[in-house]
């Protein structure tokens, strides 16, 4: 590859853009043009490559992490303009930059949080949620980081901000063998919390135990409320991290102790139906509905949590389990596996050259 400088005109302003090589006009992407089931997913090979401005980067993606949030956009639980290129995180290389970019150079390897990462190229501002990576980083490490941003930063921020977990707290974690769940298991154990893991099979529960969970509940055959009472001597949990939504919310209301906290952050079974806030009063419960991006909106917050995540991974204190890597064109298969609860750990997409 070689470096080149070209000029473009955007909104009447001439901008110089430095590129690593000739950038194609079209690219391969996974997108939706309407809401629905997996059948609405499209793998297109002639989607336009985005044009960048003076303060933008063009990143050529190598790996992108798969998250359940893509399902919410596909189904229309979260609104989006169409066509909508899916994806929320990736690792790649800067292949072009605007002439006002001073933090990154063409050739830099980066990890970042952004929409539209299920694509060969993503346009992103230099002041966005980016991490500069070593130039000699291995492919295996790239996969791990691509799969750790959303699912790693979510528990890392939540156990500080949504509910500040203390040593000895009983904490309930749903989907405890999923990508987010396994990270919760590890971080909560490091805090000295007593994690109660909920999963759909005994095999998944054993994995959660290996990663730090202390108590196990099989959601297909155990009574979650009774088991929580048993484990906590009838008191309940200090906090519940509920990524399931509609099907578990009523149970969560029952298992959280007096003055406890419900952290509702997912819609795997659908959105929680409207309910009267008066139902929180008998036990003086707190209910929060957090999202990761609002916890890292300020640059200092992003720097704090992203650097801590990388430190935990590099030190070996946090293990990211990549269970399968799919080609970009096979995202439909990947999400069907994810939605049918066939998987544990993290799923990754490999983006074609």
Distance between the termini: 13 Å
What structural class results from the helix and strand content?
Answer: alpha/beta
Q: Report the portion of residues in β strands.
A: 25-35%
SSE ordering: EEEEEHEEEEEHHEHEHEHEHEEHHEHE
CATH superfamily of the largest domain: Medium-chain alcohol dehydrogenases, catalytic domain
Silhouette: globular
Domain unit count: 2
Q: Give the uncertain stretches in residue-range form.
A: 1-15
Mean pLDDT: 93
CATH class of the largest domain: Alpha Beta
Largest sheet: 9 strands, mixed
How large is the count of helical segments? 10
User: What name is given to the CATH topology of the largest domain?
Assistant: Quinone Oxidoreductase, Chain A, domain 1
Number of strands: 18
Helix content: 25-40%
What does this structure look like?
By secondary structure, the chain is an alpha/beta fold. It has 2 domains: 4-147 and 322-350, Quinone Oxidoreductase, Chain A, domain 1 (Alpha-Beta Complex), CATH 3.90.180; 150-294, NAD(P)-binding Rossmann-like Domain (Rossmann fold), CATH 3.40.50. Helix content is 27%, strand content 31%. The strands form 3 sheets. Strands 1, 2, 5, 7, 8, 9, 10, 17 and 18 form a 9-stranded mixed sheet that branches. Strands 13-12-11-14-15-16 form a 6-stranded parallel sheet, sandwiched between helices. A 3-stranded antiparallel sheet has the order 4-3-6, with no helix packed on it. A hairpin with a 2-residue loop joins strand 1 and strand 2. Helix 6 runs parallel beside helix 7 (249-255). The two termini are 13 Å apart. The model is unreliable at 1-15 (pLDDT under 50). GO terms for molecular function: mRNA 3'-UTR AU-rich region binding; NADPH binding; quinone reductase (NADPH) activity; zinc ion binding. Residues 36-349 form the Enoyl reductase (ER) domain.
């Amino acid at each position: 590859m070689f470096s080149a400088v070209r000029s473009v005109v955007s909104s009447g302003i001439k901008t110089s853009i430095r590129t690593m090589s000739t950038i194609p006009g079209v690219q391969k992407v996974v997108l939706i043009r309407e809401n629905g089931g997996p059948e609405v997913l499209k793998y297109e090979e002639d989607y336009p490559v985005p044009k960048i401005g003076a303060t933008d980067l063009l990143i050529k993606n190598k790996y992108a992490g798969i998250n359940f949030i893509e399902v919410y956009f596909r189904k229309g639980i979260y609104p989006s303009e169409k066509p909508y290129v899916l994806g929320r995180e990736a690792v790649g290389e800067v292949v072009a930059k605007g002439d006002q970019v001073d933090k990154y150079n063409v050739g830099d390897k980066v990890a970042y949080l952004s929409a539209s990462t299920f694509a060969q190229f993503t346009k992103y501002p230099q002041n966005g949620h980016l991490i500069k990576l070593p130039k000699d980083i291995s492919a295996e490490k790239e996969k791990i980081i691509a799969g750790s941003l959303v699912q790693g930063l979510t528990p890392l921020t939540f156990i500080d901000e949504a509910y500040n977990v203390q040593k000895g707290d009983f904490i309930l974690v749903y989907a405890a063998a999923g990508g987010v769940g396994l990270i919760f298991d590890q971080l909560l154990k490091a805090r000295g919390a007593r994690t109660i893991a909920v999963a759909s099979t005994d095999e998944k529960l054993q994995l959660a135990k290996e990663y730090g969970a202390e108590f196990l509940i099989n959601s297909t055959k155990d009574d979650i409320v009774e088991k929580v009472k048993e484990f906590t001597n009838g008191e309940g949990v200090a906090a519940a991290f509920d990524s399931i939504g509609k099907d578990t919310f009523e149970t969560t209301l029952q298992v959280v102790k007096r003055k406890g906290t419900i952290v509702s952050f997912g819609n795997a079974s659908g959105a929680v139906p409207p309910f009267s806030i008066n139902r929180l009063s008998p036990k003086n419960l707190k209910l929060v509905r957090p999202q990761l991006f609002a916890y890292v909106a300020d640059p200092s917050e992003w720097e704090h949590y992203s650097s801590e995540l990388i430190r935990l991974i590099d030190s070996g204190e946090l293990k990211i389990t990549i269970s399968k890597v799919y080609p970009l064109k096979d995202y439909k298969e990947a999400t069907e596996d994810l939605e049918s609860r066939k998987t544990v750990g993290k799923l990754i997409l490999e983006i074609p050259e």
